[in-house]
Amino acid sequence: MENKEAGMGIIVKTITRLTIGLIFIYGIYVSLHGHMRPGGGFAGGLIIALSFIHVLLAFGKDVALKKLNQTFLLSLMALAAAVVLLILISRPANLIILSLCDIAICFTVGAGLFIIFLALALIKKDGA
Amino acid sequence: MEIYLLLLFMIVAAIAAIEIKDMLSSVIALSTVGLGLCLAFLILKAPNLAIMQLVIELLCLILLIRATINKDLPLVRDGRWLFNTIASVLFIAVFLIFAYFALLELPRFGEPIMRVSQEYIARGLEKTGSANIVTAVALNFRSYDTLGEIAVLATAVIGILAVMRKTGRIHGK
Question: Which of B129, B157, B166 is nearest residue A116 as measured by Cβ atoms?
């Protein structure tokens, strides 16, 4: 476990390449079908965050941060939280707005928890 | 019946998590408690909660393993076992006494008092159009509650980023 930033072995990398898309799509499915089936924005956002954590653990931080950097995540989270605020203040009544609210909650939860993981895992060394 | 077996399993796993000396094994024993709770939610017919519990438990497991895997955390063994035992027994007794009086007032298990929720269940579908009654309640009838949760999460993220910064803005690069 000396060189942690370089990621794990070749088996883990191959399995990650195969499964990462399925996990991501399942997260989107759970958050979009929150009004029909068990699930919802919170669970879907958590699954999406877990898929990015999967990439981070398997390939190291360089690959993961190339896809998403911290400022982008923070602004995405703030934007989605503002959308939730606006929608909920205007008292939604139909199904499309309910789904939109779910998507915004999904963005907030996913980006927020991935930022927390990034902070706990990486910031200690870089100071960035 | 299955719920009692699950409860027994969870209690055994929790005791194991406290008593095991190795840190990584203790974390894994702790996560079995959470997965048992997920199964308990499934048996009690609450799939929404079960999904949430499963995903949260996986995230916590990854974070805790990441935090404990390379560290040799020291065990605290001081000589005040008599005081510690007396304090533990005292607090357990206080908790049980208050729990006895509090649990007398609760409705019986499986027979909730449904005054407001009856209205939600009866007219949730036509009012919101959502087939999942949990989403209907969380995003429509109690939407300010959801807004509060989102605000708590966003505040926690901003606070963590502020605490984990290494360089201040004035003396920065």
Answer: B157
- Report how far apart, in Å, the C-alpha atoms of A35 and of each of B18, B66, B121 are: 40, 34, 14
Determine, for residues A38 and B51 on separate chains, whether the beta-carbon distance falls below 8 Å. yes
The distance of B121 to chain A (nearest Cα, Å) reads 14
Alpha helices in A8-94 (DSSP H): 10-32, 41-59, 61-67, 70-89
Residue B31: half-sphere exposure toward Cβ, Cα within 13 Å: 17
Task: Tell me the pLDDT tens digit for each residue of B93-102.
Answer: 999 999 999 9
Report d(CA B137, CA B111) in Å as an integer.
Answer: 20
Does pTM top 0.80 for this prediction? Answer: no
Q: Which of B90-104, B107-121, B124-138, B143-157 has the highest mean pLDDT?
A: B90-104
Which residues from chain B sit within 8 angstroms of residue A124, using beta carbons?
Answer: 164, 166
Cβ distance of A47 and B55 shorter than 8 Å: yes
Interface test with A, best of B48, B55, B142 (most A CBs within 10 A): B55
Which one of B42, B140, B142, B173 would you mutate to disrupt binding with A, by most A Cβ within 10 Å of its Cβ?
B140
Tell me the HSE value of B91 on the side-chain side, using a 13 A CA sphere: 5
Q: How many CA atoms lie within 13 A of A19 on its CB side?
A: 16
Interface membership of A12 toward B (CB under 8 Å): no
Q: Which of B141, B149, B144 is nearest to B121 (CA)?
A: B141
Residues B10-38 as b/e (b if ≥16 CB within 10 A, e otherwise) read: beebeebbeeeeebeebbbbbbbbbbbbb
